[in-house]
Amino acid sequence: MAHKKLNLPSKTCPVCDRPLMWRKKWQRDWQHVKYCSERCKREAKRNIGV
């Protein structure tokens, strides 16, 4: 059975401005997801300390 993924929520990564599409593994924590990758997460923490 084919699934249509047209109405999934999305966000934008504040570090690299790439779109984040909803993933099933983020289902419980979607409101807390901010970054597209661990690299962007580390970069954001490094820029806050500067």
TrEMBL record:
Q: Which InterPro entries match?
A: UCP037205 (IPR017136), Znf_NHR/GATA (IPR013088)
So which domain of life are we looking at?
A: Bacteria
Q: Which Pfam families match?
A: DUF2256
Q: Which residues form a coiled coil?
A: none
Q: What is this protein called?
A: DUF2256 domain-containing protein
Q: State the organism named in the record.
A: Pseudoalteromonas lipolytica
